[in-house]
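We treat protein structure as text, and this decision shapes the records that our systems exchange. We quote a single record here, exactly as it is kept in our systems:
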Amino acid sequence: MSHRTEPLSDSERLQGLLTMARELLQIDEPSAVLRLAGRAIVELSGATEALLLIGGESPLGVAFGCDGTASSAHVQHPWYAAAHARMTGGPSVPAPTGTLMVAVPQAQPIAVLLAACPVGSTPEIARRQAATLETALELTAATLGRIQVRSSLEQLVTTQYTQLAERTQEHADELARRDLAARDMLSLSLTDVLTGLNNRRGFFVRTEPLFRLAQRQHRGSALVYVDIDALKVVNDTLGHAVGDQMIRDAAAVLRASLRDADVLARMGGDEFVAYALDEAQPHALLSRLQQALDAFNRLRQRPYLLSLSAGMVSCDPAASTTLSDYIQQADDAMYEHKRRRLH
């Protein structure tokens, strides 16, 4: 295992702790818990070695090497005396130079962790490392308590475990909330609020990989550009609320004309774009669109008839044309279609 020369960012540490919490929930063997804990301590704090001491009638000592490998540690370990003094409240023994010491809980601790951190760390980096180590220690101790380890770990299953488990759950819940919030923020940045479709950015994010795949595999695809006719007239005469409903109706008709695997987006205003992979007969897509549009207008549930202008181009997998170029070509074809209908 190689060590990073730069400290982890806050988001990397949070993601690492969230992953650790998730994996610990799946573990029922103490040895597996210690293997995971050693790896996480080294990777998340940058420690080159560490000592874990868990209290009980016969305290359990575990040493972690630079690769996170766990091994038994006895009183002869050079850090044992400092960890034991912190746990028992005996005469203070200074922590070895270049190490960080954390304990849970702070008063009358049942678990202590010492870790050798990179020389030259700043006070701010050391503070973050200590916070990371403390959270990793809480997760480890609480998991060992959860699986009710016997022998030297029997004392861990006490009322203190309940407190540690609650704190661990709070940490896991907070990390999960942040993880969910990050996913929600990404989804919002790719979504058109009015229609729920992809927005312009979302279209490129989702279509570019499909477009490159089609080129590599020499598969046909098609791109359709659509514009709502007379939206401005509806806005001016019936109001923008009705105009917004017209946009949502157009989105629904387009969605009904496409397959689930196709990518549909609102590019802004009254314009939409769709990318269809493996469209063997591209013009069949326009036929489906016209059928869906006719079916919508036959219902006559709106104070307007929905009319769409559409332009389509087939994407040649052997050509060097970019996705943006095809969008422009489809846009030009759409305007030509609109011009022919209006004249």
